[in-house]
Amino acid sequence: xxxxxxxxxxxxxxxxxxxxxxxxxxxxxxxxxxxxxxxxxxxxxxxxxxxxxxxxxxxxxxxxxxxxxxxxxxxxxxxxxxxxxxxxxxxxxxxxxxxxxxxxxxxxxxxxxxxxxxxxxxxxxxxxxxxxxxxxxxxxxxxxxxxxxxxxxxxxxxxxxxxxxxxxxxxxxxxxxxxxxxxxxxxxxxxxxxxxxxxxxxxxxxxxxxxxxxxxxxxxxxxxxxxxxxxxxxxxxxxxxxxxxxxxxxxxxxxxxxxxxxxxxxxxxxxxxxxxxxxxxxxxxxxxxxxxxxxxxx
Length: 298
Fold this sequence. Notes:
Number of strands: 0
Number of domains: 1
Number of helices: 12
């Protein structure tokens, strides 16, 4: 639901300020929570290498938040949520390149489905991508930058978890981002928001806490690949919610009115993302079952 809320909110507040409020509120809540638990992070207790990783991860998530919000000035929620699924592919490729993780055959099929899904999703808009003077082109390009930035954050978080807990990492990122964005924001625009826009801003701030809090907790209970597979369902929720809005409000402006072929492309995108994300778990399980059968046979 985040792209839907952000699209409406950007009519009354610029992307810099929206993202700043999200980081500020989430940072304050997380700070007091860690104070109560006496778990505030000590940045000086870690190596300089870890601090550099923390700085780069903070910059990555900050850029991701801003560019994703800013992209909605150019494209609607369905498009932004479809393109941001490239994070699954980028994360897998990053794991292969930096952590020497395997890239098995079905992951290649998943990658192929992601590409075909994107082509079908944009099948009726391909001609619009021939020039950067077109807003669709600019918006999609910004979302791709957002996906790359998030991948940088996610790959570095894997390293940072050996020195900090997930809430500690997020607090440090929120503090960094709030300070980095401060020179560009106009906090007073809060006073000019309508009641609906104010409610949407509150929702976006809560989303920052709840979404990443649940993400961190899920990683404790599940494999990262399984969590990524569930996250791949996000475009279906975005497309579905906008379909419902348009059904009840046919004049709603912030929807792409996707054709069935584009929706089929989105489904292929989701299936490809799930296959790409889940294969390491399935491969590991098959390996374990094979080893158990050998032990039993012996």
